[in-house]
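## Example record

The block below lists the input lines for one assembly entry, exactly as stored, with component labels intact.
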Amino acid sequence: MISRMARLILVTGLLLSPLAALAEPNDGFPFREATVAQLQAAMAAGRLTSEQLTRAYIARIHALDSSGPGVNAIMELNPDALALARRADELRRRGVVLGPLHGIPVLLKDNIDTGDRMQTSAGSYALVGAPAVRDSTVAANLRAGGAVILGKTTLSEWANFRSFESISGWSGRGGQTHNPYGIDRNACGSSSGSGAAASANFATVSIGSETDGSIVCPGNANGVVAIKPTVGLTSRAGVVPISHTQDTIGPHARTVADAAAALGVIQSRSYDGRDAATGGVPLGWRGRFARPANLPTDYTQFLDPNGLQGARIGITRAGLNGFTNVATPAPVTTAIEAAFKALSDAGATVIDLDAAGFSFTPATGEFGILLYDFKNAGWRSRGRRHTADSHRLQQRPHRHRDAVLQSGHLRPRQFAGYERSERATGSGSVRQQQRRDVLL
Amino acid sequence: MSSYNVSLDLDQAAGVSMDQALSTFHLDAVVSATDNPAWSTDLVYGDHFIFGTSGLAAGPGFPIVQVPAGEVFGVPIGISFFGTAFSEPTLIKLASGYEAATHARAHNLPTFAATVPFDHTKGPLQQGLEGNSSLPSVAAAAPSNATQAAAVSTNAAPARGQTTRAKIKKALHQL
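Predicted structure tokens for the full assembly:
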């Protein structure tokens, strides 16, 4: 009788375990929607250690990312994360707090170099093999600020500058990133895992990169705050490049406060020596702007719950009616109108720029610039002038473009049929091929 | 296609245009919707971008702060605050004001549901499986005891599964 009952319990347990595993860790997760300020207060008061926090995020990632619903926002966990957390705890015990992210677990997009035991692959097998030789400036700033580098996030391969038919959030190495609001929905991209991970509470903040939409679109899709900083505020040194004219690195977080705190840590307030844009006038600006001499150290000082009171906001609906011939459906436009109305409800004066006859000049030169910049970025060993000079594609010549193309990892079969326009391995010289790819 | 320098000039014109909007109308920021809400991932037909406004800032290298602003059947949608170069302090102030006034994310946290939306998507027969069924039982119509037993056992399993799933769904909603 007892054994039959035990067997029943055992069998029931086995049957239910895959589903039970899905709900259980969340019910018990103590840091759901925890903010940087809350966690810092708990750590300062000795109620929480960075190690406990890091362990909790890792357990949640195991329960919801690699198993359970399977968000797949994480490419790789840092084998040294717990060591970093213990070091942060030790420093705090000695009274040393390096910054607002001290002891806070942070995830980085897989195109941001970390000079540790993790790969930095931009999602491509072509870059897998050896870790980056040194940290990107952003990763170095996080480390210097006491943050715990928890791991790397999935992305649209090569930050989506690869094919017109690529799928957002998909990479050969990382597979498909999913959206925590609905697993069959897309997390957008290219900082897909960064946005999804912040939303899923897999870390306190995460860091992505944007050339055009790659931070803000995952922010929108995954329901998190996203800051795409001015080009030149954050260094692109050690980030797999698309364009030195447009690339920028910025945070995803669940609150504006957390994103602002992260921005203060990752920014380069002065020339970082590895990205010309942090040294003065970014090349695309034609002398119209220079970096302000005295950038803020802490962006949380600008937080204001009444920030819209008395503000003047210009709204535009230009472009909201669809890129193509697909009209924006009514439930979406209704939600947008409600969002606009909230601006005036919060005390802002709202000016309808379209109704006032203003139209924005489109950046029609963009694609040509991206093609040129991409070709001249990390891909060419003598292109020593720009962002990617310090990228390891150049530090390790055997990994430069020709090697990547010849590695076979761009062959269509590697893309499991999801990529139809990859033409990197046809006839002709590598340079001709590359130009053809880029111009597809 | 234009030369590189001409392309740079064209993109700068976009930045000049943003600055003109700000100065002409004495604005603190420009706001638009960020992107259409998340589409279902489709490995055959690809991405379903309906609109996106990041291009207003991409060419000139200007900043954006995107903040959750609402939902469409549970799928989040956000707005973007745009400004001129190095206007992060202003954009952060405005976005934090918007967040404090709306709490859009707090009102719509992720559920890790398999799909969304999932309300009102089941047919009458599927709804019947979730209990209180007024449908005639398959087992009742079965002629022999043996078939009846088999039918009961096969019916029982999905019913238990449904209950478990319903419980989990409820639990997930509280995440």
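Chain A is about 35% helix and 10% strand. The radius of gyration of chain A is 23 Å.
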